[in-house]
Amino acid sequence: MTRTRLTLYDTTLRDGQQTQGVQFSTAEKQRIAEMLDTLGVDYIEGGWPGANPTDSAFFDAAPRTRATITAFGMTKRAGRSAANDDVLAAVMNAGTSAVCLVGKAHDFHVERALGITLAENTQNIASSIQHLVSEGREALLDAEHFFDGYKANPGYALEVCRAALDAGARWIVLCDTNGGTLPAEIGRITAEVIAAGIPGDRLGIHTHNDTENAVAGALAAVDAGARQIQGTLNGLGERCGNASLTTLIPTLLLKEPYANRYETGVTLEALQNLSRVSRKLDDILNRVPQRQAAYVGASAFAHKAGLHASAILKDPSTYEHIDPALVGNARIIPMSNQAGQSNLRRRLAEAGIEVAPNDPALALILDQIKEREAEGYTYDSAQASFELLARRALGTLPDFFEVKRYKVTVERRKNKHDRMVSLSEAVVVVKVDGEKKLSVSESMDDTGSDRGPVNALSKALAKDLGRYQSAIDDMRLVDFKVRITQGGTEAVTRVIIDSEDGQGNRWSTVGVSANIVDASFDALLDAINWKLLQDA
Amino acid sequence: MTRTRLTLYDTTLRDGQQTQGVQFSTAEKQRIAEMLDTLGVDYIEGGWPGANPTDSAFFDAAPRTRATITAFGMTKRAGRSAANDDVLAAVMNAGTSAVCLVGKAHDFHVERALGITLAENTQNIASSIQHLVSEGREALLDAEHFFDGYKANPGYALEVCRAALDAGARWIVLCDTNGGTLPAEIGRITAEVIAAGIPGDRLGIHTHNDTENAVAGALAAVDAGARQIQGTLNGLGERCGNASLTTLIPTLLLKEPYANRYETGVTLEALQNLSRVSRKLDDILNRVPQRQAAYVGASAFAHKAGLHASAILKDPSTYEHIDPALVGNARIIPMSNQAGQSNLRRRLAEAGIEVAPNDPALALILDQIKEREAEGYTYDSAQASFELLARRALGTLPDFFEVKRYKVTVERRKNKHDRMVSLSEAVVVVKVDGEKKLSVSESMDDTGSDRGPVNALSKALAKDLGRYQSAIDDMRLVDFKVRITQGGTEAVTRVIIDSEDGQGNRWSTVGVSANIVDASFDALLDAINWKLLQDA
User: Quick one: which of A30, A404, B11, B505 could link to A429 by a disulfide (CB 3.0–4.6 Å)?
Assistant: First the structure.
C-alpha cells in the first residue's frame, strides 16, 4: 500500500519564540535546529531575519541540516515594489532556499489593521510571492486569519490563496491565527478550499491551542486533504501555544488511520528520541517539563490506580494505548507495590548494582526515595545521586572523606575606583584519612569576573582531597539548575548539578534545602563522591 | 430557539485524584466540591467510598450542593449477589442519591483482566444496576474501555450498554479509558451506538488526554449526540489527564455551534469565576498554574508578537477569539524585544506613566530593555522592574536610599549536639537622608529553621530605612524563582521575586548576575524601590 507523504514544518524557533518568557539565544536556536533535524522534520523556520539581532545571527551561521531552513517575514508593504521593500530585502538576504511570508486573508484585518484595500492586499501578496520565485526561492504563504476570514468573506479568503498559488507559491498555509476555530469547522473549511480548486498537496495547516484543540484541528485538516502541518516542539507558541509536533508526530506514525495512510520524514527509529528531545528543549528553556504531556510526559505512562497497576502487570496493553518505548518514554508503576520493586531492581542493574529479588534493602531504598521526593528531591534527573542513595542503603558506599564545616562570604562594596564590585570567598574543612584539610577559594574567574558563592565553594571543595585529588582534578561543573519546589509544607530550593570529567563522562546530582548554598553544596558533594566511586 | 441541555459530570475528586503527585485531603475535597458547585456542574463524583479513608470521610460529611454528589465504585464481582458484595455495599452506604459503577465493555479485559466469561460480566453489570435502582438510587454505568471494546467486538460492547439500560441505568458513559481513540473515531462510534438504539440523551462521554485530544473527543461525542460530558478541573487525571472541564465549559458556552445549540447548568455570570477557580485549585495542590492553559492561563491572552500587539491596540478582536473578561482572565501585552513603541506606550500608560508618541525616551527605553534582555533579564514577568527602568530613563525615579555595601555569610558546622547545622547572616549598609545605617539579620525563621542567605539579606535590607521604614514594614517576599540563563556568553542567574504588601498589592522584580546572591539582592532592591514609589 502506498502511503501519502505529509510534510512537517516546524516553527519552534519563530512562533515558539512568541511564548511568554521564552527568549532563545542564537546558540540555543542552533542547538534546537540540530535536535529538530535528528527527528526528521522537513522545514525548520528559523526566525525573522532583520527583525532582531538573534534571528539575523542565526541565519548568518545556520547549521547544516537535512531539513530546509526557512526564513520568515511579511509580504511587501503597499506603496513600494517587492524588490524595494527593505523589510522583505532583509528576509531575502538571509539567503535561505525557502521563504515563508505572512499575508492577511481576512478582509476585516486588511481594512482595519493594515488600512489598505482588499485589492492592494492581494496585489502585495502576489507580487511578493512572484519576487521570491523570480529570485529562485521556494515560496510559502502563511494565510493569516484564514479561517476567520473565510467565515466572514469566503470569496476574498479564497482569492488570496489563488493569488499566491498563481504567483508560484509551493504551499498555502491556512492559519487559524487566533486559535478560535474548532476542529469540525477546520475540517469543513479545508475541504471547501480544496473543492474550490486549491489542491490539497499545496495546502498547509497552522493551528493554535486556545481551545485546547490545536492537535485535533491539524488532524481535521489532514483528514480533509491538507498535506503540510505546522507546529512546534512541546507546543510552544503565542498565547496558549501552537499545535504540538511532539504530540502530532507519534500520532501520525503510530495511530490509525494515520499510520497506514500517511508517511512523514520521521522514522520509527528517530521517534524513539522524542521524549529526550522534548526534555532537552525544556532543559534549554529551564522549564519544568509537563508531567502530563501526551506521549513524552513523565506521567504519560504512570499507572496510579490500583486496578490499572495490577492489570498492567498481566499485560501492559490493558491500560496503554501505545508501548512507551516507541517514543523513548517509560512506564511508571507506583513505588509502593511489588512492581515498584522490580522496576527498582532493573534501574539498579542498569547502574551495575545487582540486588537479589527479595533483598529487604529494596523496600528500604523505595521508602527513602519516597521520603526524599516528598522533601523536594527528584531522582529522575539525578541518576548519580540515586546510585549513591542506593549504595548507602546497601552499605557499599565507602566514606572517602568527611566535611567538617564550610563558610562562604558574599560581599558587595565599592572598590578603589568607586565602582561596586562583588566577591565571594569559601572556606571548606574536610577530613581525609584522619587528616584535617582547610581550603579556601574565591569566586573570581580568569577574566576577573565574580562567579558567585557556589563557584567559590566548588573550587574550595575540590582544592585538596589528599589521595583522592588526582581523581577529581579533571572534574568540572558544566551545568547548574535551580528550582524552587515544595518540600513538605515549606518552599525549598532544589539544585541539580551536571558535572563532567576528562573522559567525557557526565553525571547529575541533586541537593535540596531552604538554603540555596546548602542545597548546592550537597549536590557538589554527591558529584565528587560519585566520581570517586567510579575510580575506586 | 430551544437549546438542548448538556449535563456536566465532574470527576476531579475521583479520576482527578489519579494524577501522579495529587493526594487530596478530605477538607480539600470539600473545598473543591464547593468551588465546583459555584460553577454549576450537575454531578460531582466525590470518590470511591470504602476504597480509602479520605474518600469515606468525604461522603460522611459531604457539603450541601446543588450538584448531585455521586459515589463511584465497581459492579459486583462474580460468585456473589449484588446485595452481598461488600465492596458494593460500602459504596451504597455512602448514601448518595446517585451512584456510578464502572463495568468492563471490552471482551479482552473481561477475559484477560477479570478472568470471567462475557455472559458473567454482563450479568454482573445488569444485576448491580438493578440493585442500585431497587434501592432508589440513580444509576450510572462507566462503560470501561468502551471504544477499544467496540472496535474489537462491537456486539459485546453494545450488549453491555443495553444490559445496563434495560436494568434501569440513567446514563451509560462511553469511556475511552486508555485515551488512545482519536476524535473522528469517537464521533463515528458514538453515532453508531445511537443508531443501534441507545438514546443519545442516555449517553455520556469520558475521554483522556493521551493524544492531546480529550477535549476534541468529548466535543465529537456531543456532535454525534451524547448528552453528558465527564471531565475534571484543569484536566487532572490518570496519566495525561481527563478532558478538562475548564476548557470544555467556556467552549460550550461561548463558541459556535455549541453556544447556540446547547445549554448547561453553568451561567455566563458563573463563567467569570473560571480563571479564579482554576488557579485556586492549583493553589490547593501547590502547583504552578500552567501559563498556556486554554482560556484561563496567564498567557492565554498575552500578545507577544509586535504585529499582534499593535493590532490589539486598535481592536482586541483582531487577535482574540473571545473577550478574556468572559472567563475572568485578562489581556497581557508583555514587554519584549519584539514589542514596538506603541506597545511600550500602552504598557507605560497602564502603569500611570504618560509619554508622548514621539518622545525620544521611548527608543531609549526599548534599547535598554533589548540590551538587558540580552544580558538575561526578562521584563515579561517583572512589571515592577520594567516600571523602574522606564522611570529611570525618564528621570522620574527619586533616589530614596543608597546601598553602600553588604556582606552575607553562610556557614555549616556541627552544633554542640554534634549535628550539622547551617546559618546565614547578612549585614547591609545603606545611606538614607545623609545618614549611614548598618543592619544585621540572620536566616533563622520562627521555627528555628535556616531559610538561607537571601532570606537573611532581605530581612537586613528591610530592617532600617529611616523615614521610609513605615512604607515597607508590611512588605513580604511571597515567591522567589531562580533560573540559570545565558547572559552574553556566560551562564548567569536570573532571580524573580514576588512581593506583597498589607493592601494585597503584589509585584514582581528581576535581578541578573553570575552571582546568585547579587542577583537576588538586585531584585530585592527593585522590590523596595517600587513600593516606595507607590507611597511617594
Answer: A404
As separate numbers, helices (DSSP H) first and strands (DSSP E) second, chain B gives 20, 16
Query: What is the reported pLDDT for B380?
Result: 74
A148-157, A380-389, A396-405, B381-390: segment of lowest average pLDDT: A380-389
- State the residue for C-alpha cell 512537517: A8
Q: Where are the domains of chain A?
A: 4-266, 306-394, 401-464
Q: Among A251, A255, A267, which Cα is nearest to A215's?
A: A251
Out of A307, A486, A515, whose CB is closest to B410? A515
Closest CA of chain B from A267, distance in Å: 19
> Which CB contacts under 8 angstroms, 24+ apart, belong to B440-443?
B443/A515
Q: Output the nine-digit C-alpha cell for B104.
A: 468492563
Write down the pLDDT at residue B338.
52
Question: Do residues A187 and A208 lie in contact, with contact meaning Cβ atoms separated by under 8 Å?
Answer: no
The pTM of this model reads: 0.78
Please give the radius of gyration of chain A, using alpha carbons only, rounded to the nearest integer: 28
> Inter-chain contact B412–A406, Cβ cutoff 8 Å?
yes
Average pLDDT over residues A141-154: 98
From the CA of A249, how many Å to the nearest CA of chain B?
A: 10
Contacts of B61 by beta carbon, 8 Å cutoff, 6+ apart:
B26, B30
Within 8 A by CB and 6+ apart from A317, the residues are: none
From B300, B304, B373, residue closest to A18, measured CB to CB: B304
Residue B202 Cα, gap to closest chain A Cα (Å):
24
A410 contacts B408? CB cut-off 8 A:
yes
Q: Which amino acid is at A59?
A: F
State which amino acid sits at residue A329: N
Q: Which residue of B has its CA nearest to A243?
A: B212
Shortest Cα distance, chain A CAs vs residue B451, angstroms: 5
pLDDT digits (tens, 9 = 90+) for A191-214: 999 999 999 999 999 999 999 999
* B239–A453 C-beta distance less than 8 A: no
CB B212 within 8 A of CB A294: yes
Q: Environment class of residue A280 by beta-carbon count within 10 Å: exposed (0-12), middle (13-18) or buried (19+)?
A: middle
Whether the bond between B398 and the residue before it is cis, its omega within 30 degrees of 0, is no
Beta bridge partners, B427, equal: B407, B440
* Per-residue b or e along B24-56, where b marks 16 or more CB atoms closer than 10 Å to that residue's CB: bebebbbebbebbbebbbbbbbbbbbbbeebbb
Contact check, Cβ <8 Å, B215/A210: no
A chain contacts of residue B413, beta-carbon cutoff 8 Å: 404-407
Lowest mean pLDDT segment, chosen from A266-275, B1-10, B329-338: B329-338
From CA A448, how far away is CA A431, in angstroms rounded? Answer: 31
The 3-state DSSP class for residue B381 equals coil
From B239, B308, B314, residue closest to A301, measured CB to CB: B239
Bridge partners, A69 (sequence order): A44
Q: How many helices (H) and strands (E) does chain A have?
A: 20, 16
Cell of B324: 478574556
Q: Which CATH architecture has domain A4-266?
A: Alpha-Beta Barrel (3.20)
The torsion defined by the Cα of B291, B297, B303 and B308, in degrees rounded to 10, comes to: 130
Contact B113 A288 (CB under 8 A): no
CA of A446 vs chain B CAs: smallest distance (Å): 13
Contact, A179 vs A211, CB < 8 A? Answer: yes
Cα B400 to Cα B384, B391, B466, B497, B527: the distances in Å are 16, 13, 10, 20, 13
CB contacts, 8 Å: A179 with chain B: 321
Q: Do A513 and B422 touch (CB under 8 A)?
A: yes
